[in-house]
């Protein structure tokens, strides 16, 4: 099985537990040490490093780590001082609530020897203090194990069994909200299948191979060129040396829910589309209505469920008297009450009228407060059959 991480930066305000899997499986927090190579160059040289596993656990191993509560220990004369991600963003003048999943590089705002960590992805941004390139990183992460086998070594991170002819068996290590596999295709390519989303090349954080000799090699985009073909699922790692007897552990950072990785921007989620936040209706627009009492849109009224308020526009002449009625009665034949005085005419700015006779008006609840009623209707009394009657409404959520 492959390794799939869905990451936000350490700027997130809520602490997250380490990921688990819904299947029945053994689970443990294990220690790991990666020896990484920083960019060459002296003090002030910028760069990034990617740990082999993630998210990085807290000191006690139960949560995703953060600055001040982390299992991560960096040993290097080049990287000497960790600073919190929020502090670096503040230096950059960025909004720390605009969570970018650690995709944006703020290393330009680091002093010599400083580094910050994106704990959910295991990425480290740094500015070197000297020309040393060796960085030792010790940390904890959650390991899930399950027994199984897979073609070409499957997506398993390690295998305690034997592998031959492109097949492997034994215990496969994985972290995954959804299973996927990474199988041998050639000396530099793997076939990725089963991902629940279509990743970009930038989302492949590392590929770790375990050969039959027991020697593990980790490839990261920091030192190897990654290329992913979405049509075939082929991941190419330039300079890799894969074998059909290797097993593979592929780390992919999944897209965050509020992040558009394609354009590197925060999403704004609309609960309701703007065009659905109101409804305009013409209830009647005619002349010479027969003398009598009519209700619009009907005697049962207009339902206000889900709507918070309403405005009513009228244009009448020829002896037409208009009033507004409402009800909260659930009966089949509800009792209606006259609420005309609760409206203000937006044309004249006068409220409290009991009726509107042969008038042009645009009514809104006085004070433009929420109008919380079950149903509303317009009562229109025509005294003769020579008249003009026009009513339009606008309901708002």
Mean pLDDT: 77
Number of strands: 31
Give start-end ranges of low-pLDDT stretches: 1-13, 21-26, 144-178
Range of strand content: 35-45%
Q: Which geometry do the CA atoms define?
A: elongated
State the helicity in percent bands: under 10%
Main pleated sheet? 6 strands, antiparallel
Rg over CA atoms: 33 Å
Detailed description of the structure:
The chain is built from one helix and 31 strands. The N terminus is likely disordered. It has two domains: 268 residues, no CATH class; 123 residues, Jelly Rolls. The longest helix is centred in the first third of the chain and has 8 residues.
Which helices and strands, and how do they pair?
Blueprint: E1 3-6, E2 26-37, E3 46-50, E4 73-75, E5 81-82, H1 85-92, E6 114-118, E7 123-127, E8 134-151, E9 163-164, E10 167-174, E11 181-184, E12 189-193, E13 204-210, E14 216-219, E15 226-229, E16 234-237, E17 247-254, E18 259-260, E19 265-266, E20 278-287, E21 292-296, E22 302-303, E23 309-317, E24 320-327, E25 337-338, E26 343-345, E27 350-351, E28 356-357, E29 360-365, E30 375-382, E31 388-396
Parallel strand pairs: 1-17, 5-6
Antiparallel strand pairs: 2-8, 3-7, 4-8, 6-7, 8-10, 9-10, 11-12, 12-16, 13-14, 13-17, 15-16, 18-19, 20-31, 21-30, 22-30, 23-29, 23-31, 24-25, 24-28, 24-30, 26-27, 26-29
